[in-house]
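Q: What structure does this chain adopt?
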Amino acid sequence: MKITLFPSLDVEPIAASVKGDVITINGEVVDLSGVPEGYSLPGSAVGNKYFVTHFPVVRMGGELSFSLILPVYEETDEKWRNPVESNVLHVTSGVVPFPDTMPPIPEASEPNPLPEEPEDGGLEPA
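A:
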């Protein structure tokens, strides 16, 4: 399978695996074996929210090609959020190696200590 990644800010993380003409995305099985050689199926007809609806699923030379949404975040590296060229994965079997697009985790800082409260509870003489 030739999977073109289409960045999107509004979806949850994705995990997928491929076996033959079947791709399983976040536990949902999508069987693409019904797409004959030389034909295409609208991405919207697949019925899976990770398939890019305006790009077709195509079988050419025996290989299925389609576009999947790649979840990204505002802090995701620019090469995944706004790539100069399309990011394409070629997967014949097994886990789909999506890039890590999670934003970097900020380093934990030491908490600011609370100011000590005066023994008189902060009362001032009148």
